[in-house]
Amino acid sequence: MKNYISTLSVTVITKNEEDRLPLCLESVKDLADEIIVLDSGSTDKTVEIARQYTDQVFETDWPGYGVQKQRALEKASCDWVLAIDADEALTPELQEEIKTLLDQDVEEVGFYLPWAVTIFGKRLDHGRSARAPLRLFRREGSRFTDAQVHETVVLPPGKARKMKGRLLHFTHRDFGQTLYKNAHYAWLGAQKRYDVRKKGGLFGATLRGILVFLQVYFVRGGFLDGRVGFLMAVMYSQGAFNKYAGLWTLYRMEKLGAKKDSQL
């Protein structure tokens, strides 16, 4: 029985995560006072699995990552919220660190949880995989941005710090999913920049792709992750190029459409 000073809500958004969701929920079940799952149209056993851990399972449409995570947050009722993805899981060390947090009166309003990305059978500790996303925060005064992808948490005034325990992240099932997510996120990023009228050309897209590779592989030490580290640096580079190349195509089609209209 949990008897901590503070309470914890765990929120998860899902779609077709039957293979990864059990590990995720197993890693939080002994910490959480409530688990909230929002599913957006799974056709596998995701919903059935979620209901083995909680009765707060809701089936919804898909409005984008930021809006969906905000919906889940609005259903939470505890002091703290752990917004974890279905392809993530807490290590035992991180579980103990969160238990300690819940049993203390701390001044922080948020905590960054350092990733331990595992992909193609390799745990990556360098490059962009060394990031620490903001996943744990005080519920009151916090909210998610409404970004379609790469949403962020807006915290109330106060300090945030990084925990030491690792957050396991099983980011891609196979290379096909790597290609799909890379292209999908790049296109969403292009549309987001187009909507706010940011500019971009093909030369700039090419330069960004090169700079991202150099940053990930050399500056952030991606080369230390071996051949998988090289592959991921290339994929990040490709994603950066595709995002700004996509932005260029949107402006090009806009210009061609305006020219066509003027000739009518």
Tell me about this structure:
This protein is α/β, with parallel strands linked by helices and 264 residues long. The chain has helices at 21-26, 46-50, 65-75, 92-102, 175-195, 202-219, 226-263; strands at 8-14, 34-39, 56-59, 80-83, 88-90, 110-112, 115-119, 122-124, 134-138, 143-144, 153-154, 160-162, 167-169. β7 (115-119) and β8 (122-124) form a beta hairpin. It is globular, with a radius of gyration of 20 Å. The termini are far apart.
What key attributes describe this structure?
single chain, about 260 residues, alpha/beta, seven-stranded mixed sheet, four-stranded mixed sheet, 7 helices, about 40% helix, about 20% strand
Major beta sheet summary: 7 strands, mixed
Given helix and strand content, the structural type is alpha/beta
Order of helices and strands: EHEHEHEEHEEEEEEEEHHH
Q: What share of residues is helical?
A: 40-55%
Q: How do the helices and strands line up, and which of them pair or pack?
A:
Layout: E1 8-14, H1 21-26, E2 34-39, H2 46-50, E3 56-59, H3 65-75, E4 80-83, E5 88-90, H4 92-102, E6 110-112, E7 115-119, E8 122-124, E9 134-138, E10 143-144, E11 153-154, E12 160-162, E13 167-169, H5 175-195, H6 202-219, H7 226-263
Parallel strand pairs: 1-2, 1-4, 2-3, 6-12, 7-13
Antiparallel strand pairs: 4-9, 5-13, 6-9, 7-8, 10-11
In short:
By secondary structure, the protein is α/β, with parallel strands linked by helices. The protein contains seven helices and 13 strands. The strands form three sheets. The chain has a seven-stranded mixed β-sheet. Strands 5-13-7-8 form a four-stranded mixed β-sheet. A two-stranded antiparallel ribbon has the order 10-11.
